[in-house]
Amino acid sequence: MKKSTLTISLVLRLFLGTIMIIAGSGKFLKTSPTPIEVVEKASNEDIMSSKSTLQKVLYINGLKQTGFFWETVAICELLFGIFLILYRTYFLGALFLLPITLQIFLFHLFLEADEIGELIYCGFLLLINITLIFIENERWKSLFSKFGPTKNIFREIYGNR
């Protein structure tokens, strides 16, 4: 790999990894509201008047109310952020982080479309993640290559034994 590609990869890895570590640890610092507090907040007239705001409140607080999902996302962001910073594991971290960054982007696209700055920022994070995966295309390119000359599906399943 070229030195310039390595440098760009390092900067992108450190940036995205740091963002994910900060975001993941931030999820543990805030306390989750009780179900009664969520219902009271959702029944507020200001929130009820805006469909998108109500959807955001119910979606995020619904994730928190499960008792495990919000924490699981936080642990994944922390772990995969650390994976991104370490050279030996950054490709794995970028692969595992892709569904999370995609979900964050889609959340902002569909539920906070009026927040253009947040949408651009989350799109930028998703683009960085995709870039980190495509920089290492030699590692995964063989997954999409054609079958061998025999085109034997059994060999694809069992391997070359």
Tell me what the structure shows.
This protein is mainly α and 161 residues long. The protein has one domain. The protein has nine helices and no strands. It is elongated. It starts with a helix and ends with a helix.
Number of domains: 1
| Alpha carbon gap, first and last residue | 33 Å
Helix and strand content put the structural class at mainly alpha
E-strand count: 0
Order of helices and strands: HHHHHHHHH
**What is the residue-mean pLDDT, rounded to a whole number?**
85
Features:
161 residues; mainly alpha; elongated; 9 helices
Describe the structure concisely.
The chain has 161 residues and is mainly alpha-helical. The chain has helices at 3-29, 35-42, 45-49, 51-65, 69-85, 90-111, 116-135, 137-140, 153-158.
What's the helix and strand layout?
Layout: H1 3-29, H2 35-42, H3 45-49, H4 51-65, H5 69-85, H6 90-111, H7 116-135, H8 137-140, H9 153-158
Helix pairs in contact: 1-5, 1-7, 2-4, 5-6, 6-7
